[in-house]
Design goal:
heterodimer, A: 297 residues, mainly alpha, 2 domains, 0% strand, B: mainly alpha
């Protein structure tokens, strides 16, 4: 990245006069920019409409076009949405699940990826392949049996019970990505640590794991977003409203109170705030890290 | 997966001097939590779904599952009126997902790989829908498609095309396509980010060299960018196929499979048979078909992905 920027800067300095002359003729660049800008605007419209609806009164929604500004800004919709959608309880459930599931899942996946990539026992690759396939199987295939299993284990309709299948469906992909990272750590590093008398656990904890920080950060963000947004398993395994997670609350809000468009759209907005925050704070990890690791090349 | 071969050159590695059976014993504590969770909550439900497909069971615990052999499959293929629609819709969804959002994502990535004003803002606008929950996207788009107050019909009326206004989700002719439009909006960002990451691996020296040799933009794209993007493209394609086979939340949130089952897909039909119709056996049979389709597509990819990583 740095190397690229330096090259670019150098090129620009040497070719500056040429560029000046070429500039007015860069119609391709301008056309491209316009095309991308228009597309971006189209992509932005649904979000804008949701926001405008979320601050309109019932009358405004019925009488104004959807893109019209509200005559009076009905910020009260947000307060009613919090109340109708039981926002604090459901957001609390989602946060509880995510804050247990995401770090625990990463730790379990990292340990397994370490064993598969660094201890190199017989059959490690076949085991990795069998695990990786699990990351690609649609969860809906197992929902029926999962329901029965959780019922027999008395874990149905329990937030902590939901964490177990979440872990099982989250770790395969993480193992797959971390395996690639751990494999690329030079053997010599591990070697010299072992000569210094480090145990296998110390090698895992103090050498391999810190080197995989970018991948771990990226996986953390991806997994947080995926966990916060998960719907299919939650709707199967949670029954009582008090255990609902955010996606279940959105769905029940829109089926039960679907005509209360103002509060509904306010609720939709608020439900996405945590993932938007995580995205904005850790944006750079999306492009770097795990994706580079997931892409063979 | 980037795996620089670090093993060549290293000699007498300590883990290597440990005999194989002891090495597995060493690995077991690290593997055990993952393997137990994976076996109990992922592999077992999958196998059990296949097992259930040979039984007739309402799912109620007071009733014992009754073994019926291949009856569920015979019913599925000959007399289930929805299965073929669901299979067809799933296939359409896979093909359309490979064509439309993937191509848009590639074009956006190529465009946004250039330095230009507002590049990061545009990237964010395209990516943000991908972090919304699908069920939330469904709620958003149901509002956009609302027959009277929704954006689409209001816009059509405003520009004088009021005749084209439809009940987008209520008409079997348009419902699936309408859901797919919402899917395009959501799916483009993720593939775009993958393509952008892939474009980082395009060797700049080669681009410069090709420029000096007088290669035009198209030739540079064809001979430098395309080969460099090949591994990324394989990943995008497999992820797109998998996500297309999994599509569930959007359909549940927008139409629930209706009107008249016209937007039914395999993942949802399996769920509906088990939980709504209390036909666990039929649900299992649909799940088995979905599992076989998935494995047929995923196993070749895994073979490719593991290649070149020999011990």
């Amino acid at each position: 990245m740095t190397a690229m920027t330096t090259t670019r800067a150098a090129t620009r300095r040497t070719t500056a006069p040429v560029r000046e002359r070429e500039k007015p003729r860069d119609w391709v660049g301008i056309g491209l920019w316009l095309a991308l800008g228009v597309t971006a605007l189209i992509w932005f419209v649904p979000m804008l409409l949701m926001f405008l609806t979320s601050v309109k009164s019932k009358t405004d929604i019925n009488e104004l076009p959807m893109w019209g500004l509200p005559t009076d800004w009905a910020w009260g919709n947000y307060a009613s949405a919090v109340e109708i959608g039981n926002l604090w309880v459901t957001a609390g459930n989602s946060a509880l699940i995510a804050l247990i599931k995401v770090p625990l899942g990463l730790a379990i996946a990292a340990a397994a990826a370490f064993a598969l990539s660094r201890i190199r026992f017989r059959g490690a690759r076949i085991l990795l392949a069998l695990i990786a396939i699990g990351s690609m199987i649609p969860v809906q295939i197992g929902l029926g049996p999962l329901f029965s299993t959780m019922l027999s284990a008395h874990l149905l309709d329990s937030r902590l019970g939901l964490v177990l299948p979440y872990l099982a469906f989250g770790i395969p992909y993480q193992i797959f990505v971390l395996y690639g990272f751990f494999r690329s750590v030079p053997e010599e590093l591990e070697e010299s640590a072992r000569i210094d008398g480090s145990s296998t656990f110390r090698i895992f904890w103090q050498i391999i794991l810190p080197l995989a920080k970018p991948a771990l950060a990226a996986l953390f963000v991806l997994d947080f977003v995926a966990t916060w947004n998960e719907y299919a398993m939650a709707t199967t395994l949670l029954i009582s409203q008090d255990n609902y997670t955010i996606p279940l609350a959105v769905q029940s809000f829109s089926t039960q109170w679907g005509t209360d468009y103002g509060p509904l759209n306010a609720f939709i907005f608020m439900s996405a705030i945590p993932v938007l925050l995580v995205y904005l704070l850790f944006q750079r990890y999306f492009v770097q890290g795990a994706f580079a690791g997931a892409v063979k090349g | 997966m980037t795996t620089t071969d670090a093993r060549t050159g290293a000699r007498g590695r300590s883990t290597r001097t440990v005999p194989p059976h002891r090495r597995f014993r060493l690995a077991l504590p690290y593997l055990a939590p993952a393997l137990v969770l994976y076996a109990v909550f992922l592999v077992y439900p999958m196998i059990d779904a296949v097992r259930l497909s040979f039984f007739e069971w309402s799912g109620f615990r007071i009733e014992k599952p009754e073994f019926v052999g291949l009856d569920n499959y015979v019913r599925l293929f000959t007399s289930d009126p929805v299965f073929w629609t669901a299979l067809r819709n799933s296939v359409i969804w896979v093909i359309a997902s490979l064509l439309v959002p993937t191509v848009i994502a590639l074009l956006l990535a190529l465009g946004l790989n250039r330095r230009m004003l507002g590049r990061n803002l545009m990237r964010a606008v395209f990516y943000i829908p991908a972090v919304f929950a699908s069920i939330t996207v469904a709620a958003m788009w149901r509002w956009i498609y609302n027959p009277t107050l929704g954006f689409v019909n209001q816009l059509l009326h405003a520009v004088g095309l009021g005749d084209l206004a439809q009940s987008w989700l209520g008409d079997p002719q348009f419902a699936l396509a309408s859901i797919f439009v919402a899917n395009i909006w959501q799916a483009v960002g993720f593939s775009m980010v993958l393509f952008l990451a892939g474009l980082q691996s395009v060797p700049l020296e080669l681009v410069e060299a090709a420029k000096l040799d007088g290669a035009g933009a198209w030739q540079r794209f064809r001979n430098v960018t395309v080969p460099a993007l090949r591994p990324t493209t394989v990943v995008v394609v497999i992820l797109t196929i998998i996500n297309a086979l999994k599509v569930f939340d959007l359909v549940v949130g927008l139409t629930g499979g209706g009107p008249a089952q016209s937007t039914q897909v395999l993942a949802l039909w399996s769920y509906t048979q088990s939980f709504t119709n209390h036909e666990y056996g039929m649900g299992g049979a649909v799940a088995t078909v979905l599992l076989l389709v998935t494995l047929a597509l995923v196993i070749p990819y895994m073979a490719w992905s593991m290649r070149g990583d020999e011990s």
